[in-house]
Amino acid sequence: MAYIAHSSSSTYFQITAEDAEILSHDPAARDAAIAKLYAHPDCKPSFYPSDMVGDMPSPAEYDRYLEHANAAIERHTPPQTLEQRVLRTHIAAAATNVLRQYKLQYTLQDYDDLQLRVIKGYAQLFKAWMKNDFPVITRKVPSNSAHEQATHTLPTLQTPLSPPPTQHHVITTEEVADYLNNPHTLLRKQFQHTPPPGGEEDYRGMWSLESYTTRVREDQVDHEFAISLEALNGAVVPMGREEVKDLLTYSTLA
Fold it and tell me: What is the pLDDT confidence band of residue 215, given thresholds at 50, 70 and 90?
């Protein structure tokens, strides 16, 4: 079940990443198609799991929803029109949240180690797909590294001895702890991640918190963070507390 769950989640992420990139080529047409879709009375302009399947769905109910979502995605794959692409990414985004909320978080709530392995598993699947398949599908020429992508967006390059831009605030150890203890304070902020020499380069660049979920178990509050990463072309990747701590430790506040 866990393998199926993280494979499905990775597929949903792949669809939304592909569609978001292709739709970004014509923002006006994309926005018009989104407005038309959301004007339909049967379409809910929301991705909250409870809006899709209710507050307390049974396993049969959320499994049935995901079956319908997968069938609808299959009908519109590959998309033949811009409208189909908008509809497909809307369905995939909603299905992602339902799957994560009910088949991962709720089902594995008593198995922390397994839940972490699942999260890391589909994050690895998604990163490999972004590196190898995404450029081919979208005809987007990849740079040699995420660092190269980030520096090409800057108007000027600073020398290694230059101080950091004054508008960037270096995050202290105390602030890292405060952010983790109060995740809502991360919302509506932009961070610049610069890993140390020899550190993991996959997430170098701008990032932000899109949303977070919490649950109480055995008098402890657990958090899952949905992080949007410039290094992955804005794709949203779920992370645990320790992963976000690592991001914050080597980040500045833009």
Answer: low
